[in-house]
Amino acid sequence: QSLTDPASLAQCFVKATADTPMMAAKHKAGPYKIAFSNSLYGNNWRTEMLNIASAYVKQPDVAQHISSFKIFNSGNDVSQQISQIRSMILSGYDAIVVDAASPTGLDSVINQAVKQGIVVVAFDNTVGTLKAINVNEDQTEMGRQWAQFLVKQVPANKTILMVRGLAGATVDNDQVDGAKSVFKDHPDLKLVEVYGGWDVGTNQKVTADALATHHDIGGVWGTEGATGALQAILQVHAPLVPMTGESDNGFMMLATENKIPATVIGQSPALVAVAIRAAIATLSGQSLPQSANVPLTALTTDEMKPDVDYFPKLPGSFVTNISIPQCGVHIPVTDVVK
Amino acid sequence: MPDAVLRAENLTKRYGGITALEDVSLSLAAGEVLALLGANGAGKSTLVKLLSGNILPDGGSIAIGGEGRHLTSPRMAFEAGVATVHQELSLFGSLTVAQNVLIGREERGRFGHIREDASLRRTEALLAEIGVPDIAADARVGTLSLAQRQLVEIAKAMSFDPRVLILDEPTSALGLTDVHRLLTVVRGLRAKGRAIIFISHRMEEIEDIADSVTILRSGRKVGAFPRHSFTRERALELMLGETQQQLHAVPPPPAPPDSTPPILQVADLRLDGRLNGVSFDLRPGEVLGLAGLEGQGQKDMLFALFGLFRRGLRGDVIIRGQARRASRPLQAIAAGLAFIPDDRKNMGGFMFLPIAHNVTITILNRLRRFLFLDSRQEKAVVSALIRQLAIKCSSADAPLGSLSGGNQQKVIAAKWLAFERDIYLFCDPTRGVDAGARETIYATIRDLAAAGKGIILYSTDMVEFPILCSRVLVFRGGKIAGAVSGAEINEESILALSFRDTGTVAA
Amino acid sequence: MSKMRDRLGEHIGPLCCAIGVIAVVALYAAYQPAILSAFGIASLANASVTLALAALGQTVVLMTGALDLSIGSEISLVNCFAATFMGDGTTSIVLVVIASLLIGVLAGAINGVVVAYGRVAPLIATFCTSFVYAGISLTLRPQPGGSIPDSFANLLTGNWGLLPFSAVLLLLAVLVIWLPVFRSRLGRFILAYGDNPDSAFASGIPVRRVGMAAYMLAGLFAAIAGLFLAAETTSGDPSIGNVYTLNSLAAAVLGGVALTGGRGSMIGPILGAILLSIILNVLSVVGISAFWQDFIEGGILILVLGLAGIRLLRAQSWTSLLGRSQS
Amino acid sequence: MSATTDLQPGRSGPRLSAAVRRGALPWLILAVVYALCVIASADFLTWHTIRLQLIQAAFIGLVAIGETLAILIGHIDLSIPWTITLTGIFATNLYAAHPHEWVAFGAAIGIGVAVGLVNMLGVYVLRVNSLIWTLSINLMLQGLTLIYTNAAAPTTVVPPAAKFLALGMVGEIPMAAVLWAVCAVIVIGALRFTPFGRAVYAIGSNELVALVSGIRLGRVYAAVFITSGVMAALVGLLLSGYSSQAYLGMGDDYLLPPVAAVVIGGSRLAGGEGGYGGSIAGAMTVILLEAMLITLNVSQGEREIVFGAILLALAFLFLGRSRR
Ligand SMILES: Nc1ncnc2c1ncn2[C@@H]1O[C@H](COP(=O)(O)OP(=O)(O)OP(=O)(O)O)[C@@H](O)[C@H]1O
Ligand SMILES: Nc1ncnc2c1ncn2[C@@H]1O[C@H](COP(=O)(O)OP(=O)(O)OP(=O)(O)O)[C@@H](O)[C@H]1O
Ligand SMILES: [Mg+2]
Ligand SMILES: [Mg+2]
């Protein structure tokens, strides 16, 4: 079966580092009882992600492995999430999929779960404990690829505006570390960093502020919410410069419309499906890297196709990369937008 | 005077541009009751606040027991032996009597924990000592009547076992019996050698209790004499700065003829246990007094008429022939009623807002031109009323809270005079008001009556009934125990009715 | 008779919460009987204790008629500090615990100085200091991490038979801090000051020191909460406390504490905190979608507040009705 | 908290009349903060930069209209963030389905009025503390928005009028600022010169006295909370126009900054004193402070410390002091 086929698993789950150990669990006969402990909810990415989770487990080839699937939401409250996971341990789930409220805070409860023979897969906001399988997209690599795109496009001696995400978040630090590993080889480029909070409005505001004080901006290194940065540029009629961003529908629409050289790579909400797949594969006896990365797909402006890569009829806040073909995850857009 | 317990010299206090007190000196011996007299805003309370460490003087000195003191907080004053009952009560409604009385000086156990039982017993002993054993030491102060709270406040001051006790208008909220009780307590304290400063606007009380009298006017000391050389006329002259025309000489407004149809009819009004079937009529031009001992339903009667009870009121209120029983003030106002409350702080005025805005709050719609307020007309209305009631203020834009108590009371009256109504409910309108302002308010009531308004007057000061009312209803137990009218209105007849059932008539 | 009704009225908040807690736990147990096991009870207790501690701290400040919007940041601060500096040795643990408590008290003292001596309105003062404390946590630990020794973690989060250690911690906090304070003059002063600040001043109560003390106590409770979170998560996180600021207010109000000051108990906020904490859990267990959670949580709050309001509406006179919300 | 303040000493403070202090100091604070901005970056001298800040300030300022009124009657409105988000998403969705401007604006006003009425119900009729009631309503609105967006994702179709109001220019002046100025004149006029204004101050000073004086409390409460709801809803539309989309969480920055703007603007949190004039300066101060800190390019932690400390210093030095 394709879900647990070792070759296709190897294609999807790439070791994060060369020395990442492989992990296996005791084989169990399916179908499995799986719980999903989600933290934050209420932004677009999470909403799509929750819809994808519900849709994915209903796809026939997945459904056959699953006897019950339940979503728990704790909000951004670590204590709450710990107690929910404890209650999952009590309920005898076979696997727990986690999008964590804290990268370190859940470690001890996850260790407890693993000790009870439960397979734990964390994705997106992953966890520190080595007992859980972490599935993510390589944020450092993402930041690096964005930066590589920019250093090719931006003339020397210009300023690059880095519209970062949320201060203190691991993802933010990883992305910026990756970018800086590229920029440090280009000392002629000046860097200005602002925090856009991964939010369109905040991006727009901080970009507008930065544009007002820096007039030699030659490129914008943006992440989630870069739609706002682009809008700020359009709004103040600043020169259109090369940009990067995540797979926001709005960003892609504006970039294609204004023919702005841009590249998008995005944290996919379908990671949840990949994580569920990892749980099923592990339970059925396959071994996976303890920390796995899903291959990235970058799209540049000239490659973006309407209604395939982006959706002119959908809201700008829609996160477009709802499928991860390398992992066999295909989610129809109608399952995500109801 | 080597035996002075308290000696204040050249005390001065300024508030911004206003000099509230200037160069005032006084001294007080053990076993002496010093009465402080003065019109509203003369600076009595300011002096009290200085002596009790609530405010700091801008000049002058205070010595207690011969020792110079710089009182920077109330606590220092307590420690120096000065306890004060302020004009505005300072109690905690959600604490019990005992917890209030002993606040900060509770009986404590080995671990510093409060011993509630011992505190309760100490409070009970204190209450018994000052002669009010009927107040339960474990009752919540929020449930007590105003008079009872006043007595609790005195117990609280007494619990310090002070050398000097200051009472700032302790009787203004009390009915006759409670006043007598309080004066007895004061006499007892004097006998024990306490020095007492006593403030009141009621001359009878001063004559009754004072050993010496000090008179303030506009922040200055204008006279001091021993009891035996004190006369009312002299005091009034010094207080008010002009020879007063003969007070009380004006007869009460005549009763309207019986044929006049009543403007207000109350029939069998009831409110769970507080009003037990009250019926009466009020005619235009009549001043109807509500008398009786404290808490017999007179005040509830006024509150009920003005719609301050939201539920539970039964019976009929008929105004100009229409049923107008109100369950909210707006309905009462629409029916033509005005209400001048006694509790000016909580019900009377907006302390932070300008005097002018206080006065015109009831007539905003009249002052409106299209959408906006006509400020010229507003100014005219306000300054006319300030003049009419002789309100002492620096300007109409000053906040109400910066006026002395009596002047605040006048502003509240002004607010309803601006808004002409048919029936005026006066609830102890002269509480804490000086003799001059009192005359102004009396004159105002008479004028209203002459203009054909119906007036109901509740007062704790029995002197007011004979000089203002053509008829007085005496309340007892939420019912009308009887009525007196015309020349029969006097303290004796009212008290007789107040006490009729028990047959005892207090002095 | 009416006295009894008065008493009942006073305890209506805690009473409603208690009934709510029982109902919610019963619902939980119906869906998942294992919750009544030792492990399950410890889960419930651990999930509620942080909020209960935060709510106790908030209640002390509410009783003075003020409020503390910095409780969450104080929790984060202590949490980050402990996770950064706590080593494996017993001495290190003891020293860091003491230092953490002192940091909480100090943060509270700063709030107290600003409010009581600086005369800045509590809402705005603690709003500002919350930024300062959050900034310090973020500087201390730009990203979550650090470590907490297992011995300390187990000490606070384990269980002894059916008795969770977290519940013992809460009990200790009540016995060692709350009860002594509210059996002493300080507690009386706090209530008196909240009831009527002007009277308190005129009665010779050291009003500023009382205001300070209330915030310091709040800081102390927040510090204990921060330490407990550190033990529970064995790490420090600069944003971990954020949820507790408003939830502590909600828990206190649910528990019948008046925001106008002068009234409040300890049992009410604790019950309110337990109710708020496990309700979310139960919603998930019962299978209610995430999208409905906020709505239902808000709805419950509004229902409880509204019910209390309807009780008030039966007030007989306007003076008591408007007097109450005034103060 | 009523009038016995004269019992307490020790409030010497600057020897300025209260009115002058409340009226002028917010602008002084603004001037100081602006000077700091200019020191941080000379770009703050350009009209271009100022214009950008002005647009941001207009959003806070418009929301602060309702907040000022709520604070003047002695309450607070913390239901603004999700009123903004719900309106942004719901009204643009509706507009996408029925592309008439009045549909979007009508829906926004409808939501604003509804939220205002619910707030009035809790705060006035049920007499629940406004802080906790409006916060709970905010939570419910958040839930409502999530439930709604799960069923219908937000669109990118934004009414042009909203875009114009948020981004358009009248000559060199942003349309948002013009709208703000118009609303400000109306509010200041209403507060100073109409019976409604008097009633607002009266209720904030002492509700019982207002009742006894025949003020229609319910109407004033309704007007205040409905204004607040409608202004929040309007800003929700404007923000959608500004970002060309409505999205979840778009109102999150509008919980406490409007309150800060009102307090820096010199209104007393307990009600009865202050006005909207100061809130204008307050809104600009809050926005400039944020912009300045962004310009300084310091770490997030340090920025939060500095922001909190400066705001505290402003509150401490001049205004927002409690009467206690
Ligand atoms: N806090 C204050 N601010 C400004 N002026 C004040 C303040 N307190 C008192 N005053 C002024 O000081 C003067 C003296 O007031 P005080 O309260 O001492 O009068 P009083 O003699 O006690 O009057 P009453 O008989 O009405 O109580 C008054 O003119 C009053 O307006
Ligand atoms: N509520 C208040 N309003 C006005 N002034 C006050 C108030 N509270 C305190 N003060 C002023 O502060 C002084 C000291 O007050 P208090 O005794 O309450 O504080 P404290 O903590 O003992 O201060 P300290 O540490 O200086 O001894 C008082 O004398 C008074 O001048
Ligand atoms: Mg006085
Ligand atoms: Mg002291």
TrEMBL record, chain B:
Q: Does the keyword Methyltransferase apply?
A: no
Which GO molecular function annotations are given, in alphabetical order?
ATP binding; ATP hydrolysis activity
Which part of the chain is the ABC transporter domain?
6-243, 258-502
Q: Which domain of life is it from?
A: Bacteria
Keywords of this entry: ATP-binding, Nucleotide-binding, Repeat, Sugar transport, Transport
PANTHER family annotated for this entry?
Answer: CARBOHYDRATE TRANSPORT ATP-BINDING PROTEIN MG119-RELATED (PTHR43790), GALACTOFURANOSE TRANSPORTER ATP-BINDING PROTEIN YTFR (PTHR43790:SF9)
Q: What's this protein's name?
A: Sugar ABC transporter ATP-binding protein
Query: Which organism's genome codes for this protein?
Result: Acidisoma cellulosilyticum
TrEMBL record, chain C:
One GO cellular component assignment for this chain's record is:
plasma membrane
Under InterPro entries, the record lists: ABC_transp_permease
Membrane-spanning ranges: 12-31, 37-57, 69-87, 93-113, 120-140, 160-181, 212-231, 243-261, 273-292, 298-314
Transmembrane helix as UniProt keyword: yes
**What's the protein called, per UniProt?**
ABC transporter permease
Q: Report how it sits in the membrane.
A: Multi-pass membrane protein
**Where does the record locate the signal sequence feature?**
none
> Which Pfam families does this entry report, sorted A to Z?
BPD_transp_2
Location(s) in or outside the cell = Cell membrane
GO MF entries: transmembrane transporter activity
Q: Which UniProt keywords apply?
A: Cell membrane, Membrane, Transmembrane, Transmembrane helix
Q: Which coarse location class applies to the principal site listed for this UniProt protein?
A: membrane
The coiled-coil regions, if any, are none
TrEMBL record, chain D:
List the Pfam families.
Answer: BPD_transp_2
Keyword field: Cell membrane, Membrane, Transmembrane, Transmembrane helix
Localization recorded for this chain is: Cell membrane
Q: Name one GO molecular function term.
A: transmembrane transporter activity
Per the record, membrane topology reads: Multi-pass membrane protein
CDD domains, per database record: TM_PBP1_transp_AraH_like (cd06579)
Q: Which GO terms describe its cellular component?
A: plasma membrane
Looking at the UniProt entry, the stretches that span the membrane are: 24-45, 57-82, 102-124, 131-153, 173-191, 220-242, 278-299, 305-322
Output the superkingdom of the source species. Answer: Bacteria
Write the protein's name: ABC transporter permease
**Lineage, broadest ranks:** Bacteria, Pseudomonadati, Pseudomonadota, Alphaproteobacteria, Acetobacterales
